[in-house]
Amino acid sequence: MTKFTRWLPVVALLPLAACATAPKPAPMPQPPSLTETDITFLDKAARSNDFIIAAAKLADTQARDPHVKTFAARLVTDHTASQDRLKAIADQHGTTLPDDLDTDEEHVLDSLKAEKGRAFDRDFTALQIAGHDNATQLFQAEATNGTDPALKAYATDMQADIQSHLDMAKALGQHRHHHRLHH
């Protein structure tokens, strides 16, 4: 009897397994397991993409400066493509991307949602400078120290996009600053 109860939890975890009569297809060869460094990068990069996309989508209705709106649309396109590539790598390893943001990021998004016009433009631009600055370090570290070839290639390839977004955000910040001085 004790033997039976010990196996109960295992049986409970395998619903439908007994019903599957069709032979299972041969599993795809799994790449080597991700290291702690790679998993941490995967999580942080996914959250970074999600956060930037969520913030950029707000610009569509809340930004005043057309340049900010154009920049935000570019961010949505590029970071969605980046997230899709990251998801494909996660799928290969049989893992999933986090679908939630950090608490701090949630708070920042809530603050942004409450802003409109010039205040939104100013804070959104500052946020993207800080966010892409952090991403630069994150992606450089993975490109140097990561062990998974697909993740290393992803981190290396994305650095050009991140730098380009950072330059655009800084240019926007300067443009807004000069604009203020002349008014």
From TrEMBL:
* Signal peptide boundaries: 1-20
Q: Which residues form the DUF4142 domain?
A: 37-172
- Alphabetized UniProt keyword annotations: Signal
Q: Which Pfam families match?
A: DUF4142
Q: What is this protein called?
A: DUF4142 domain-containing protein
